Amino acid sequence: MLFNSVSFLIFFPIVVIVYFAIPKKFKNHWLLIASYYFYMSWQPVYALLILFSTITTFYCAVLIDKADTQKKKKLYLTVNILLNIVILFYFKYFNFFIETILLFFPNLSISKNNNMLAVVGISFYTFQSLGYTIDVYKGKVEREHNFLTYALFVSFFPQLVAGPIERSSNFLPQLHQTYKFEYNRVTDGLVLMAWGFFKKLVISDGAALIVNIVYNDVTRFTGIQLLMATILFAFQIYCDFSGYSDIAIGAANVMGYKLMRNFNHPYFAQSISDFWRRWHISLSGWFMDYVYIPLGGSRKGEKRTYINMLITFLVSGLWHGASITFVIWGLINGLLNIINRFFYNKIGKTRSENPIICVLKAICTFIMIDFTWIFFRANNIKDALYIVNNLFSDLSLWFVNGYFVSAMKDIRFYANNGIVIFICIAFMFIIELWEGKSELTNRINNSIWLLRWAFYYAIIILIIFFGYFGKSQFIYFQF
């Protein structure tokens, strides 16, 4: 079930109304049923996979808690991690593994499984449940004694298929609380959901129409057309993913639950490392705590730190998808972060309050990040290399009268409201600047009524007149 579907617009109000109407002791049961229904609406068999992950991680934590030696605790954790990773590997990486083997040994009599089930959100709930067992093993949290409560922690429908990847220390205690209907909290959640729908339906889905034309047939295009599609993809993926996070956080807030913030204005970042502190915060934090630090972090010398950073980003690339393009995307981001750290260590922190310098640094960071998105979006490595080689081709024509208009017509820029999309992107940046360090809903609530209602009506009008109400999935569902 997609957030941007009629089914969800019926499903969500029913879930909320029943949730507030039933007694406390049934609330978690109701949300668990709703969450499984939500997930099974894609494929009923999905329930078996998430149930397997839930059972294994729950009882692993039980065994760890009851084990009388550290050796046994480690054994139980290792077995559990391997079980879940094997499942994740089979459904997400098996065909990629076979392709890689055949690339080096083409004569082997093995083949891909073309009937492989594509499991929506498997990486998200697998990482969330594994994070719980690792935290129990490390003694950071106490194990959950109620299986149904833990099952809801793993399957909570707002963030089930694309995060945020919640920590057990933050979310599990909330599932033991009772939340009553509060008008201000509910309206805040609905406003955040509307903001997420605006980013998804207007900016992301609008940009996708142009991006797909170019990236699905790259050899037809050169120069300014490739550049325009690449710039638009940066906003497509940001508005798609942060839009989902806003809807998820808002939906949870309506019912009283606080999910962690997943994005913090990443395109305002003034360095690569700053960007990754702002982008997909829940996943970046997960890799920091469960991959980078266990590898040694920055505790074993500068060279080892660089190696650990590179490994972490390579794993992050693989997490995003079973393709060489994602591996390269992770590798480039790892190298950029290493370079960033190297110069930081050499020249120290140079933070300027000059707004012009800040803007220039943000633009440079955006350019580097946008370059990496080429490998993230390209259908294969051949397409990615073609784009890189032709991104600035035909430079002499760029300033010829009428060339830009003609090039944009070829990618249906005007027919697909390209100008409106850029106006909406500018509007989004203005709102993010206005939001500052506070939460959007707090900023709105503390504003004069005229500004507040202007924001409400602007969002509603833009969604109604320029929103794309098809059934386009969120990009991160594939991960």
How is this structure best described in words?
This protein is mostly helical and 479 residues long. The chain has helices at 6-21, 24-40, 46-66, 70-104, 122-138, 147-155, 168-171, 183-215, 223-254, 272-278, 281-292, 302-320, 324-347, 355-377, 381-390, 403-410, 418-435, 440-445, 449-466. Helix 2 (24-40) packs across helix 6, helix 9 packs across helix 14 (355-377) and helix 11 packs across helix 12 (302-320). It is globular. The model has no long low-confidence stretch (mean pLDDT 89).
Secondary structure elements and pairings:
Blueprint: H1 6-21, H2 24-40, H3 46-66, H4 70-104, H5 122-138, H6 147-155, H7 168-171, H8 183-215, H9 223-254, H10 272-278, H11 281-292, H12 302-320, H13 324-347, H14 355-377, H15 381-390, H16 403-410, H17 418-435, H18 440-445, H19 449-466
